[in-house]
């Protein structure tokens, strides 16, 4: 009986060494359910959304994962375009910029083929480059308005020029375009304004 246990122990150690060797040589890791992989990806994404500048080590520590797992997961998310890219949240006022939102309502008429071509060709990006504004977000939405643009400009004059250019580009398609100027940013892209005292000054 003692001999049996010794043989089994030796066999288990051998199997364990082979498994470790396979992983070290790039073999398959132990199988994990798709559900668990999805949960792990969401935890890593949540950390990146809080701070995309966070180090791999920092994310690994917060999630309780290995550094290799975090790095590998991020690469997979990027390849699958679940992560589009990374950006920096800036203080527009300190950079001599003003932040605006444009709410656009289209006419009830069906879009013509050439209008659809203009939209999909991203002609708007050429206008943005010519005028000098920076478009942050562009959404097609369901509700009272159909299209929302958020952007920064040097002043209201430049913002209005951009608005007129959008109306010209989509002549006959836009019924109304409302321009709003942001007065104070409380939170932007998951990042809270680091100077909350200024909010108190804003309401004073």
Features:
204 residues, Alpha-Beta Plaits, 2 domains, 4-stranded antiparallel sheet, 49% helix, globular, disordered N terminus
How would you explain this protein's 3D organization?
By secondary structure, the chain is an alpha+beta fold. The protein folds into 2 domains: 2-79, no CATH class; 93-188, Lrp/AsnC effector binding domain/regulation of amino acid metabolism (RAM) domain (Alpha-Beta Plaits, 2-Layer Sandwich). 49% of the residues lie in helices and 17% in strands. It has helices at 2-24, 34-50, 56-63, 67-79, 113-120, 123-131, 156-169, 197-203; strands spanning 98-106, 134-140, 147-153, 174-181, 187-188, 191-192. A hairpin with a 2-residue loop joins strand 5 and strand 6 (191-192). It is globular. The model is unreliable at 1-27 (pLDDT under 50).
Reconstruct the topology from this structure.
Layout: H1 2-24, H2 34-50, H3 56-63, H4 67-79, E1 98-106, H5 113-120, H6 123-131, E2 134-140, E3 147-153, H7 156-169, E4 174-181, E5 187-188, E6 191-192, H8 197-203
Antiparallel strand pairs: 1-3, 1-4, 2-3, 5-6
What would a concise description of this structure say?
This protein is of the alpha+beta class.
N-to-C order of helices and strands: HHHHEHHEEHEEEH
* Beta-strand content: 15-25%
Structural class: alpha+beta
Strand order of the largest sheet: 2-3-1-4
Low-pLDDT ranges: 1-27
Would you identify the CATH H-level superfamily of the largest domain?
A: Lrp/AsnC effector binding domain/regulation of amino acid metabolism (RAM) domain
Distance between the termini: 85 Å
CATH class of the largest domain: Alpha Beta
Shape: globular
Task: Briefly note the CATH topology name of the largest domain.
Answer: Alpha-Beta Plaits
């Amino acid at each position: 009986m003692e001999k049996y246990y010794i043989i089994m122990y030796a066999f288990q150690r051998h199997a364990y060494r082979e498994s470790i060797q396979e992983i070290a040589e790039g073999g398959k890791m132990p199988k994990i359910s798709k559900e668990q992989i999805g949960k792990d990806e969401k935890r890593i994404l949540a950390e990146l959304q809080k701070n995309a500048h966070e180090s791999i080590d920092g994310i690994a520590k917060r999630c309780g994962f290995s550094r290799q797992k975090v790095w590998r997961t991020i690469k997979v998310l990027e390849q699958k375009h679940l992560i589009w890219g990374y950006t920096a949240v800036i203080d527009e006022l300190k950079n001599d910029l003003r932040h605006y939102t444009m709410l656009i309502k289209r006419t009830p008429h069906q879009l013509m083929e050439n209008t659809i071509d203009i939209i999909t060709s991203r002609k708007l990006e050429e206008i943005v480059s010519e005028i000098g504004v920076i478009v942050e977000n562009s959404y097609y939405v369901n509700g009272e308005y159909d299209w929302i643009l958020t952007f920064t400009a040097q002043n209201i004059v430049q913002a209005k020029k951009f608005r007129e250019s959008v109306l010209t580009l989509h002549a006959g398609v836009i019924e109304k375009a409302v321009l709003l100027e942001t007065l104070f940013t409380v939170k932007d892209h998951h990042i809270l304004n680091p100077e909350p005292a200024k909010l108190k000054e804003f309401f004073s």
